[in-house]
Amino acid sequence: MEIAIVGGGIAGLASAIAxxxxxxxxxxxxxxxxxxxxxxxxQLGPNALRAVRALGVWERLSPKLFAPAGLQIMxxxxxxxxxxxCFGPKFEARFGAPxxxxxxxxxxxxxxxxxxxxxxVELLTGRLVKKLRFEDEAPVLALADGSSMCPQAVIGADGIxxxxxxxxxxxxxxxxxxxxxxxxxxxxxxxxALPSDVVLWLYPGGHVVHYPVAGGQQMNLVAVAAGxxxxxxxxxxxxxxxxxxxxxxxxxxxxxxxxPAWTRWPAADRTPANVWGRAGTTLVGDAAHPMLPYxxxxxxxxxxxxxxxxxxxxxxxxxxxxxxxxxxxxxxxTARLQRLSRRQGEVYHLEGWRADLRNRALAILPESLFxxxxxxxxx
Length: 379
Fold this sequence. Notes:
α9 runs antiparallel to α10 (319-348). Helices cover 36% and strands 27% of the residues. The protein is globular and about 65 Å long. It has a domain at 2-37 and 105-173 and 271-344: FAD/NAD(P)-binding domain (3-Layer(bba) Sandwich), CATH 3.50.50. Strands 5-4-13-14-15-12-17-16 form an eight-stranded mixed beta sheet. A five-stranded parallel beta sheet has the order 7-2-1-11-18, with helices on both faces. A hairpin with a 4-residue loop joins β9 and β10. It is of the alpha/beta class. The protein contains twelve helices and 18 strands. The longest helix is centred in the C-terminal third of the chain and has 30 residues, at 319-348.
């Protein structure tokens, strides 16, 4: 059986590894000329790390991981600490894996190398898939160069603007939100004063997160500010980011000023879909369930998708039945993540007395209750 995976990102590469074997030929079609990633950090919760182990990628990836000691929540206006939650032995024992941080480039590289080493997997770059159609329920892929492919099965792993999703669901453009996401990466040596925790700064109408990646050698900065992105390309100078947080504390201003250049994107997601596939087709990762980044579960959900898909196709020889089983296992969970990610952003961005009430509640929230409330995410 030939299975075509459209997209060579986290979801696509992980799915290729998970689906390999059982006399299958897995072809990954990536639109870019090379499979690579630059300048972004990824938080990997216990569910993501269990998936990494199940995919057999742990040995490749573990040297590049960084395990933070905890989550530190700060008041961005005053610079005061609100609360700290520990990622220690109790956390790992509770969820079956630690909490780790990684550079997205390192994660892509580990998955890419593992896919290349997996028998039956072929990675083809420079292959832009424009559309999926069906001929007697058999999938046909139309490529930008005018050629076509007729695999027995197709998996859309081509992100939030997925062409495969549009061919299947025709649900239009992603939903954009009234905020801008800025990202930057700086050498850790220029930020030695910053803690090794995941640090979350809560600001009226926005927030900032920073944490170490690349085995602790670099620091990932993410700033989310109210309002859409400025006109121009995806890059900007520090002045634009600083102007979005005019009332921030001196400590946070110093941190944001460490990055001379930033990239920016509009915040976007989609409403959960009831259908992910038809016949021998399905969706994984952001093509299936794009979510705002406020739960740090986008990459994790893609990795768990891949492991679940692999398990279902191993247990069920009929590919369409295996895909429907996979969808049934994943749709409710990822829809809950999508909805909660939106709500989490609203909580992060509270203003005035509502923000004060949130901060006081966090300050007295028992750690055990905090982890109980998010336990379903890591289950």
